[in-house]
Design brief:
A two-stranded antiparallel ribbon has the order 1-2. It is about 70% helix and about 0% strand. By secondary structure, it is mostly helical. The radius of gyration is 22 Å and the shape is globular.
């Protein structure tokens, strides 16, 4: 992708057709990804309706569709030879092959009974694998509308004054955050990976966005709130969770390992001169629209990348996710890990400090686990659990395999280090937030 002109470059005049090329696909993309629509008694974004419709259309075949993607995902690193790149790639290739076995067990009902309890294989396969297997390819088709015709670059220039000083990322990263929240973290990561590979994000910026902006969607937040009996304080929970998530991101970008990553890129956002921000944004959007490929070519490229990401994610969700759930349920690993977080909770005098710390640690396996473990706790502990489930961002059953399947240079060790920082900081902020809501009548 060509570098847009700087603010000092003479303005190029484009025909009205270029303005239409910028506006029409971008407007359709905004409608599909960001505007809730009521259909069949359900209010959500059109993309979610499409995924629901696709799953209903597939019916029982949706499981076989997911299995086919998992098999393809296990074969892909062997076919491409990427399993040889590093020890991590080799381990994850083995885990992807194991994902075929676990998917077969989930689909057929074979195997030990404890694997088929509702919080094990059925949860992974029905609630994570099938929806992700549908939303990533379908979302990738319409992603072409959102990021291929200049909207990303136009908005990026407009919101630079907020994004750069607070989160040290380009203005265009705001689109990633919103896409994750209203759609899926996998869609947000698809955008991030695409923009990083185009040279428009540095390695550090892409890592910040992947580990700090790819939050769970509003739909997942509702499920967490219901499980923790927080729907009576939904607005407080919703807004405080978002504020704490992005405040924690603003802190972690200034700490290792993120702060020391490479920050060079080949295609940076143009800087706007004082008083010329809107003009620069408009010109940048038009320049990108003028050079954009045809819609069919853009859709084909995005769909291909979406399918590669889907087959890369799904086998890992099945194997790594199951391992994490088994560790959380049948071993004391997360109880031990929880003691690392105990001081960050105990400082506030919470009665159930040990339980909250251990539940927060269990979120490394699956973001929904803390809510399952703390459903009967006191209000402050439940509220803090709900916030940390969202603000931790990283978990082994889905988001970590998603990140590892991208081109973003984040090792597993770096990801876990960022997770630790996020959980510790989130607990420090979420517990007093719970006391505040309780004091205000929550």
């Amino acid at each position: 992708m060509a570098t847009p002109p700087s603010a000092s470059t003479p303005t190029r005049h484009h025909s009205p057709a270029v303005a239409l090329k910028l506006f029409v696909p971008s407007l359709l993309g905004v409608l599909i990804f960001f505007v809730p629509l009521s259909l069949g008694g359900k209010t959500t974004i059109p993309l979610d309706h499409m995924v629901t419709g696709a799953r209903a259309l597939l019916g029982e075949a949706s499981g076989f569709y997911a299995l086919a993607l998992i098999v393809a995902g296990a074969i892909y690193p062997l076919w491409k030879g990427t399993w040889r790149r590093s020890a991590t790639d080799l381990v994850f290739t083995v885990l992807k092959i194991a994902g075929i076995v676990t998917a077969m067990l989930a689909l057929t009902g074979w195997g030990p009974a404890f694997l088929h309890t509702p919080d094990m294989l059925p949860f992974l396969f029905d609630k994570l694998v099938i929806p992700v297997g549908l939303i990533v390819p379908i979302g990738a088709i319409f992603l072409a509308l959102l990021i291929g015709f200049g909207l990303l670059e136009l908005i990026g220039v407009l919101v630079q004054p907020v994004m750069r000083p607070i989160w040290r990322t380009p203005g265009r990263s705001a689109i990633d955050a919103v896409a994750s929240f209203v759609g899926s973290y996998s869609i947000g990561l698809l955008i991030t990976n695409r923009v990083y590979r185009a040279g428009e994000y540095s390695a550090r910026e892409a890592a910040i966005i992947a580990t700090g902006f790819s939050i769970v969607s509003a739909t997942f937040m509702i499920i967490v709130a219901k499980t923790l009996d927080l729907m009576n304080v939904w607005n407080a929970y919703f807004w405080l969770s978002l504020c704490i998530t992005f405040l924690v991101t603003a802190i972690t970008v200034r700490l290792p390992p993120l702060s020391g990553m490479d920050d060079t890129k080949s295609d940076p956002e143009p800087e706007a001169e004082s008083g010329k921000r809107f003009a620069t944004a408009w010109q940048t959007g038009l320049d990108v629209a003028a050079k954009a490929p045809s819609l069919p070519a853009s859709v084909a490229l995005n769909f291909r990348e979406g399918m590669v990401m889907a087959i890369s994610i799904l086998p890992s969700i099945m194997s790594v996710g199951l391992a994490g759930l088994l560790l959380a349920k049948y071993t004391p690993v997360f109880e031990w890990l929880g003691w690392v977080f105990y001081p960050f909770v105990a400082v506030w005098g919470v009665q159930e400090a040990a339980e909250l710390a251990q539940a927060a640690a269990a979120g490394l396996a699956e973001m929904f686990l803390p809510a399952l473990l703390m459903g009967e706790a006191d209000f402050v502990a439940r509220f803090a659990t709900g916030v940390v489930s969202v603000s931790a961002v990283l978990f082994f059953s889905a988001s970590i395999p998603c990140i590892l399947s991208t081109s973003i240079p984040l090792s597993l060790g770096r990801i876990v280090a960022v997770w630790f920082l996020r959980v510790a900081l989130s607990l420090l902020l979420a517990v007093p937030a719970g006391y505040l809501v309780q004091g205000l009548g929550g």
